[in-house]
C-alpha cells in the first residue's frame, strides 16, 4: 500500500521493483521513445546487470517491456553494462554496450533489433561478431567502458568515444572509427585526456546550436554549432564546450578544462550521474536523462524492494552566453499538472513564511520568481571563487543574511520539524554579484542513517537586471530544482518520516534581513504518470 512505500515516485521513472542505475541507449525511433537502463532483475542492489527496457509516446507515461539484454554469453556473462544506441543511416538502430566477459575483462558488444518493423523493438539479438572490441595493448581490462552514440564525419566514417584510463592517472576518452558501425578501429590519438581527474565513465559528445534552443542530430555537420563533451567522474557530470573539427577530430575548448572543482561546469550540482542525451527529431530537441541514486542504506533498499530513479527528462541547449548549457524539464510534464495555485506579486519582508495552500509538498511542480530592489546592499564575500557547496553548508536555511536565504520549503511537516529548503542568497564579490542557489537537506528527515548532504551552485545572473527564478519538481523522495530558468540544476534525494503524502506542505519564505519581491508563484499538484508493464 501507499503508506509502506512513501518514497516511490509519481512521475520520475522507476521500474516496478529492483535495482536500476544508468540510463542506456535512449532514442526516438519510428514514433517511439526508448529508454533502456542498467537493471538487476533479481533484487534491489547492483548485480546481474541487464538492460531494462521501457517505451513511451510522450516521455511521461511508460510501458515496461522485458529486459532487452541479459548476461548470457561468454562475452557478457559478467553483466551487460552501459552503452548507447545509434540509428545508422536514419533507419537501422544498433546498440553498443560494455560487458564483463567470462574472464572479468571489459569488452564492447553490439546488438540489433530482431525485427526492425516491430514498433516497440521488443527483441534484441546480440551480433554474431561479438565481442566487437577487447582491451588490447595498453588498455586496462577493468577500465574500458561506456561507448557513446556514434556520429558520422565528412569522410563517411562513424566515430565513437569509450571511457578509459590508459596511463595510470590519465583519464581518457578513446576514439574509434568504423565504416559500417560493426567493425571498429582505434584512432592513434585519444580524443581527449586529463591528468586532473579520475577515470571517465559514460562520455557523451554532441553538437549544440549557437542560434537558439533547437537540438541537433549527433552527426550534424554545418555552421553555427559548438560541441559538448560530457564525462562522468567523482559522482558528477562534468562538461566542456568547444569547437570540433570533424576533418581532424580536434576539439578546441572554449570553456575551462575538466577539473574536480565545484565551480567547474556540471549538469547538476546534486545527485545526478551517468547521464546520456539523445536527439529527438520529432520535437527538434536534445533530451537528457540521468541516474539519480539513493541516499538511504542497503537495508532500506531491501525494505523498499527497489533502488534508483531516472531524472525527469530535460531539454538541453546552449545558453545565449555560449559559456554554459541550459536545462529544462521537457514540456510534456505539463500533461500531469492538476490543481493550480497562483500567488500574485507581493513583498516578502525579512522573516516571512507563507504556506502555499492546497499544494502538496510531496508531489508538485513549483515555479517562483523573485527580484531584489537594491542588490548593492548584498553581503560581501571576499572571493569570486568560493566553493558554492561549501557556502551552502556554512550558511544553512536558518542563517539569516541580507539578501537571502529566500526560496521554498518542500517536504515540510507540521511545525517544520522536517523541511527541505531550496533557496538563494545574493553576495557582492570583488568583481561581480554572486547568486548562490542551495538545496539544503540537513533537516529533510528525522531518520538517522540517510544522506542529508547540502548542495550548492552559482547562477550566472546579474541581480541588478535579472529576475531570480526557481522551478522545483517535488516527487516523494526527490526534488529536482532549476535555478535561473535552467542555468543551474540541483537534484536531491530525501526520506522524510513525517512529511509524507498529505502531511507534506509547501511554503515560500524569506529569512534574510532585506525584503525581496516575489513577482509570481505558480504551483501545481501533479497527477501520477502511468508506468506499467506492457499487457
Ligand atoms: N555503471 C555501469 C558502467 C558505468 C557505470 C555499470 C557508471 O558501465 O561505467 O553498471 O555508473
Automatic annotation (TrEMBL):
CDD domains cross-referenced by the UniProt entry: GH32_Fruct1-like
Q: Which Gene3D superfamilies match?
A: Exo-inulinase, domain 1 (2.60.120.560), Glycosyl hydrolase domain, family 43 (2.115.10.20)
> Which SMART domains does this UniProt record tie to the protein?
Glyco_32
GO molecular function annotation: hydrolase activity, hydrolyzing O-glycosyl compounds
Q: Can you give the residue ranges of the Glycosyl hydrolase family 32 N-terminal domain?
A: 12-329
Alphabetical list of Pfam families matching this protein: Glyco_hydro_32C, Glyco_hydro_32N
Q: Which InterPro entries match?
A: ConA-like_dom_sf (IPR013320), Fructan_Metab_Enzymes (IPR050551), Glyco_hydro_32 (IPR001362), Glyco_hydro_32_AS (IPR018053), Glyco_hydro_32_C (IPR013189), Glyco_hydro_32_N (IPR013148), Glyco_hydro_beta-prop_sf (IPR023296)
GO BP, one annotated term:
carbohydrate metabolic process
Glycosyl hydrolase family 32 C-terminal domain location is: 332-525
Q: Sorted alphabetically, which keywords does the UniProt record give?
A: Glycosidase, Hydrolase, Signal
Identify its protein family: Belongs to the glycosyl hydrolase 32 family.
By what name is this protein known?
A: Fructan 1-exohydrolase
Tell me what organism the protein belongs to. Answer: Helianthus tuberosus
Upper lineage: Eukaryota, Viridiplantae, Streptophyta, Embryophyta, Tracheophyta
**Source gene?**
1-FEHI
Amino acid at each position: 500500500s501507499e503508506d509502506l512505500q512513501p518514497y516511490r515516485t509519481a512521475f520520475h521513472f522507476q521500474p516496478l521493483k529492483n535495482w536500476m542505475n544508468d540510463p542506456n541507449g535512449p532514442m526516438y525511433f519510428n514514433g517511439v521513445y526508448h529508454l533502456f537502463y542498467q537493471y538487476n532483475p533479481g533484487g534491489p542492489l547492483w548485480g546481474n546487470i541487464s538492460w531494462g527496457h521501457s517505451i513511451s509516446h510522450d516521455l511521461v507515461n511508460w510501458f515496461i517491456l522485458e529486459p532487452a539484454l541479459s548476461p548470457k554469453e561468454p562475452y557478457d556473462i559478467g553483466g551487460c553494462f552501459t552503452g548507447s544506441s545509434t540509428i545508422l543511416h536514419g533507419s537501422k538502430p544498433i546498440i553498443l554496450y560494455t560487458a564483463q566477459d567470462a574472464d572479468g575483462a571489459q569488452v564492447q558488444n553490439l546488438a540489433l533489433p530482431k525485427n526492425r518493423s516491430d514498433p516497440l523493438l521488443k527483441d534484441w539479438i546480440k551480433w554474431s561478431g561479438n565481442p566487437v572490441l577487447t582491451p588490447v595493448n595498453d588498455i586496462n581490462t577493468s577500465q574500458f567502458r561506456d561507448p557513446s552514440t556514434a556520429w558520422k564525419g565528412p569522410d563517411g566514417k562513424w566515430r565513437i568515444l569509450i571511457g578509459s584510463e590508459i596511463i595510470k592517472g590519465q583519464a581518457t576518452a578513446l576514439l574509434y572509427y568504423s565504416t559500417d558501425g560493426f567493425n571498429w578501429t582505434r584512432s592513434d590519438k585519444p580524443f581527449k585526456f586529463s591528468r586532473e581527474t579520475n577515470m571517465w565513465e559514460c562520455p557523451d559528445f554532441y553538437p549544440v546550436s549557437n542560434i537558439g534552443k533547437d537540438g541537433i542530430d549527433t552527426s550534424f555537420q554545418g555552421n553555427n554549432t559548438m560541441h559538448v563533451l560530457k564525462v562522468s567522474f567523482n559522482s558528477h557530470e562534468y562538461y566542456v564546450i568547444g569547437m570540433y573539427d570533424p576533418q581532424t577530430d580536434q576539439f578546441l575548448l572554449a570553456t575551462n578544462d575538466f577539473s574536480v572543482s565545484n565551480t567547474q561546469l556540471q549538469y547538476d550540482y546534486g545527485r545526478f550521474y551517468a547521464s546520456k542525451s539523445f536527439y529527438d527529431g520529432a520535437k527538434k530537441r536534445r533530451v537528457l536523462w540521468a541516474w539519480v541514486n539513493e541516499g538511504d542504506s542497503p537495508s532500506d533498499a531491501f525494505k523498499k524492494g527497489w533502488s534508483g530513479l531516472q531524472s525527469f527528462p530535460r531539454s538541453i541547449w546552449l545558453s545565449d552566453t555560449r559559456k554554459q548549457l541550459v536545462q529544462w524539464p521537457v514540456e510534456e510534464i505539463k500533461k500531469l499538472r492538476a490543481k493550480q495555485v497562483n500567488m500574485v506579486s507581493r513583498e516578502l519582508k525579512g522573516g516571512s513564511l507563507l504556506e502555499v495552500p492546497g499544494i502538496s509538498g510531496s508531489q508538485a511542480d513549483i515555479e517562483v520568481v523573485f527580484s531584489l530592489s537594491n542588490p548593492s546592499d548584498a553581503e560581501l564575500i571576499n572571493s569570486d571563487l568560493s566553493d558554492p557547496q561549501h557556502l551552502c553548508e556554512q550558511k544553512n536555511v536558518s542563517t539569516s543574511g541580507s539578501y537571502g536565504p529566500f526560496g521554498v520549503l518542500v517536504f515540510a511537516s507540521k511545525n517544520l520539524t522536517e523541511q527541505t529548503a531550496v533557496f538563494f542568497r545574493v553576495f557582492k564579490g570583488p568583481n561581480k554579484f554572486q547568486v548562490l542557489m542551495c538545496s539544503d537537506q540537513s533537516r529533510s528527515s528525522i531518520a538517522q542513517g540517510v544522506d542529508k548532504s547540502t548542495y550548492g551552485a552559482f547562477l550566472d545572473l546579474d541581480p541588478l537586471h535579472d529576475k531570480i527564478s526557481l522551478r522545483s519538481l517535488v516527487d516523494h523522495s526527490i526534488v529536482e530544482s532549476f535555478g535561473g530558468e535552467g542555468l543551474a540544476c540541483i537534484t536531491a534525494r530525501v526520506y522524510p518520516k513525517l512529511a509524507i503524502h498529505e502531511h507534506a506542505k509547501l511554503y515560500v519564505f524569506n529569512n534574510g534581513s532585506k525584503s525581496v519581491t516575489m513577482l509570481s508563484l505558480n504551483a501545481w499538484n501533479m497527477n501520477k504518470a502511468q508506468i506499467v508493464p506492457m499487457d
